[in-house]
Amino acid sequence: MLQLILSILCLTSLLADEKMTTHSLQMEQETLNYTATVVSGDVSYISYTKQTTENRPITFAFNGGPGSSSVWLHMGTFGPRRLVSPEEGQKAAPPYKIVDNLETILDLTDIVFIDPSGTGLSSLDDKACSINGDIESVGKFIRNYLTTNKRWNSPKYIAGESYGATRAAGLADYLQNEFGIYLNGLIFISPAIDYQTFIFDQDNSLPYFLYFPTYVATAWYHDRYRPEATIEEVTEEAREFVYKTYAPSLICPKCHEKELIYKKLSLMTGLSPRLVELSRGRIEDMTFFYGLLEEEQKMVGRFDSRITGYYKNAFQDPSMSNIEGIFSATLHDYLHKELEFQSSYSLFSGEAHSKWDFSTYNAWGYPNLMGALRRALTCNPTLKVFVGCGYFDLATPFATAEYCFDHLDIPDVSVQMDYYEGGHMYYLNPSARVKFKQDLIKFYQNP
């Protein structure tokens, strides 16, 4: 009898950790009838599967941090329901609005939004708080999901944003080697893959010239440089200056006339000659955040440099503070009312982030998953890669992604790279979100 009671209690506990609901979404060409599944546990997830017998593609999606849940991709762009963004008139204070998402990718693929250790509805596992541990944890989850849901023969994609691209590159290699799981495609959104491209250090010149095109794009947006030009024109001009003049001057300072370099830097970035000279021509991101609009006592955002805010002593990214509350409230409201799962959801785990060990993957320098990506592409030459970048992203600037894929050094690899007028989460711009969906249609449908 005791064993029977324990079995019933265990079954009840399992049922309490999973909830399935059915929904429909009217798209332009079809009505999508789908099942939403919420599962909490060691690695939690929210999935959307179309009600059909066909062998559809399946996409595993997550954000980065490390320590971030998948809420941003889920409620911002990929899911069947999304929040209304500030660019669509949403205010910072509630109530907030959730609408049907006509740019969802559910018409192209089933979606599993994964919340890594300590995030979303997942429990915290210290062993998963490292690059290798995280890849192993998420990789085993994907294997188990494919097994439980009989999806081993489905076309398989992984989508990762920011640090999620680090995870995605590692997973492509890990899944092949550990389980024989070969992917059809990788979707990198505002990717961080090689950390040497964006960690500022006196002995590391890469970020100084790779951030420069985004500085110029930001100056253009705020009417500090060539407002009559297009964004494509000013960023192409910036690339030309970087690779013909600026990068060589950082590698060999004595070989170039620094006064001429400083003058050009000031002109194109909109920074005062004083700040450029104080930085000795090596402009770090914090200098630019505060320096572009210093006469107005404003700073530009890190995640989206179009967004500005007044600053006092402490750094507070205005492009994050203006959306964090919206995502938190709308996710909880949606989870409780529409998905019928009554629980608190952790958007970001500061504890997981603080425990993160970057050294376990690369003990000799900057974390860099380009090697894992090369191995995956070499072993699976049919693996497609999508790279999406925002022009106004000062967290992982577009030139850092360009640098990585320019140095991939694998012939005939299929890389689709697209650019958007937005920041790190460029899909919060309505026109960018529409373009993003059209670009993904091309990616999923092209062999």
Query: Per DSSP, what share of the residues sits in E-state strands of 2 or more residues?
Result: 15-25%
User: Helix/strand/pairing class, anyone?
Assistant: alpha/beta
Kindly report how far apart the N and C termini lie.
58 Å
Tell me the name of the CATH class of the largest domain: Alpha Beta
Number of helices: 16
CATH topology label of the largest domain: Rossmann fold
The CATH homologous superfamily of the largest domain is termed Alpha/Beta hydrolase fold, catalytic domain
Element string (H = helix, E = strand):
HEEEEHEEEHEHEHHHHHHEEHHHHEHEH
Description:
The protein is an alpha/beta fold. The chain has two domains: 10-196 and 323-445, Alpha/Beta hydrolase fold, catalytic domain (Rossmann fold, 3-Layer(aba) Sandwich); 201-283, no CATH class. Helices cover 40% and strands 16% of the residues. The chain has helices at residues 2-16, 71-78, 131-148, 163-179, 206-210, 212-221, 231-251, 258-269, 273-278, 285-291, 318-321, 324-337, 350-355, 370-379, 398-406, 430-445; strands spanning 18-26, 31-39, 44-50, 58-62, 81-83, 98-100, 110-115, 156-161, 185-189, 298-300, 308-310, 384-390, 414-420. Helix 2 packs across helix 12, helix 3 packs across helix 4 and helix 6 packs antiparallel against helix 7. The longest helix is centred in the middle third of the chain and has 21 residues, at 231-251. The radius of gyration is 23 Å and the shape is globular. Residues 4-16 have low confidence and may be disordered.
